[in-house]
Amino acid sequence: MKDAVAICCGGGPAPGMNTVVGSVAKIFLRHGWRVIGLHGGYSGLFSKEPKMVDIDFLYADNIFNRGGSALKMSRFKPKESDFKGNFNLDLFKDNNIKLLVTVGGDDTASTANRIAKFIKEKGYDMKNIHVPKTIDNDLPLPDNTPTFGYQSAKEAGVAICNTVYEDARTSENWFIVSAMGRSAGHLAAGIGGACHYPMLVIPEMFNKTEITIEKIVNLVVSSMVKRKILGVPYGAAIVSEGVFHALSEKEIKNSGINFSYDDHGHPELGKVSKAHIFNEMIEHKVNKLGLDIKSRPVEVGYEVRCVRPIGYDLIYCSLLGIGVYELYNQGASGCMVYVGPSGQAKPLYLEDLQGPDGKIPPRLVDIEGYGATTLIKNNLQFIEPADYEAAKEFVENPEELDFYKILNW
């Protein structure tokens, strides 16, 4: 029986999923392996009848440059009881699976490690290699290397948000845009910076003060008033959904929003429109101040997860897929594959990346770095002390809208 490699995809989709799977398949097929695709993420490993597909070269070639994921995904995360009663060890034995390749974020990587250790305890020798993905760009890869999918998602987001900004000019309205990013503001900052939005709000900006709804609202209104001073009757602000995750329970309760939570304990932000919520709060403040400003909400989330990967990710994901084979031949296991500027694949061992709680801490936007501070201070428009006198034409208390005082910078 041929040695086999099994591939499964966990979490949510990102541009380049199919490129990774197709590239892994092609390189292993080339060297005489059998390649098995597992549908349903990890759920298939804990089922007596897993949904599988034998990936041949034609299958791999048909999917490698497509968006979405040909292997159906799932956020299933096994509990200890699943390992004790439902794990399908025969799947690995009967198919001679020697390597499990997982594609996903930090939760997927941690689960892959648990599975590999469990299988080893059962006396079956199998290696596991993880390919890190997330459009949030929040995995701590060396040399500030992006996670795959981020560049393609950002490019798609920029296309949407440039069009939104054109609408703002045309209609002389404001738009409140919400962008994905559970822990970090990379996507919102990347899109907002590229589109020259006059205001962006990401969780990292609150490094010296607690995040509150009032502060989020005041930052956007600060930009609105500044634009009025400049004689610009339109604009757009982009807010990272991650600010919701950083709000205290008291603040979330005060917002009036009742969130449901997923199996990992994260608020299911995909079930509500963050842009709508932000816009409602901002409209209330604008009306209270008597400002003649109309604003509209726009959500940028699921629209960018399944787009076709751009050239950057097509090459990057191809190198990641080939890198899996190279690392396997080097005897690596329990690691993520990392491809840096040189294009050479190297292992990043999960135990070296995990914190005391066993989770991989997110990589945040370096808010004090040169790039971030330059864009914030020079691209954003907001009220500061020099604007107080001019701002009094529109608001009674300009100091309340002072960007630096809001953030305690």
Number of strands: 11
Distance from first to last alpha carbon? 64 Å
The radius of gyration computed from the alpha-carbon positions, rounded to a whole number of angstroms, is 23 Å
Main sheet overview:
7 strands, mixed
Low-confidence stretches: none
Strand fraction: 5-15%
Question: Mean of residue pLDDT?
Answer: 92
Output the CATH class name of the largest domain.
Answer: Alpha Beta
Give the overall silhouette.
Answer: elongated
Provide a count of the helices: 16
CATH architecture of the largest domain: 3-Layer(aba) Sandwich
CATH topology of the largest domain: Rossmann fold
Structural category is alpha/beta
The main sheet orders its strands as 3-2-1-4-5-10-11
Tally of distinct domains: 2
Q: Fraction of residues in helices?
A: 40-55%
Topology as H/E string? EHEEHHHEHEHEHEHEHHHEHEEHHHH
Looking at CATH, the homologous superfamily of the largest domain is Phosphofructokinase domain
Description:
Strand 10 (335-339) and strand 11 form a beta hairpin. This protein is of the alpha/beta class. The radius of gyration is 23 Å and the shape is elongated. The chain folds into two domains: 4-148 and 309-353, Rossmann fold, CATH 3.40.50.450; 151-304 and 368-407, Rossmann fold, CATH 3.40.50. The protein has 16 helices and eleven strands. The N and C termini lie far apart (64 Å). The strands form two sheets. It has a seven-stranded mixed sheet, sandwiched between helices. Strands 7-8-6-9 form a four-stranded parallel sheet, with helices on both faces.
